[in-house]
Amino acid sequence: MIRAKLPPAAVIFDCDGVIVxxxxxxxxxxxxEFATHGxxxxxxxxxxxxxxxxxxxxxxxxxxxxxxxxxxxxDRFYSRxxxxxxxxxxxxxxxxxxxxxxxxxxxxxxxxxNGSDQKMQVTLGQHPGLISRFRGHLYSGQTLGAPKPAPDxxxxxxxxxxxxxxxxxxxEDSPTGARAARAAGMACLGYAAHTPAGRLEQEGAMxxxxxxxxxxxxxxx
Length: 221
Prior knowledge:
Helix content is 46%, strand content 11%. By secondary structure, it is of the alpha/beta class. A 6-stranded parallel sheet has the order 3-2-1-4-5-6. Helix 1 crosses helix 2 and helix 1 (23-36) crosses helix 4.
């Protein structure tokens, strides 16, 4: 586990499951799609085995597990997912208070997501003023061509924020993202909402279970 420097020079957030509560919607749709194509899994199994990857990676793993997904499945699933997310994607409880604490301390922050730029616009854009709070620092591993667990996304965000990787803290909810943070040389706090705390710890993250605790964990309270 990489030791955190408190307070950090910058904080980099994952998006899905950390800023917006989109994971359960995604898991439900994936479970439905997998069952339709011959791979019956419940939401808990989907969360356990498919959290944190790109949808292309999800498709590859599902096919390897026996799902007969068509060649155009990724594009079709994204269309279905974006339409569902646009109907209403709540924020993670307490995350606005975390951003308020960072703003009060003058600490910059960014999002580094394996989701697409379009997906971030769909989910974050539902909440007035939220996108502008990130001052343009919304980064997609798909757009960069190097999704997590590669460290490139987090290293890119640190450069854009003008801080060293070692002075950043990453907020993640998946083992894949925690692995990327560790590879980038960044301390990671693991929001253990959909992933067992032990799996996040195995990837070098320090787990926590409530966003209300995050300002203190960042040395801001």
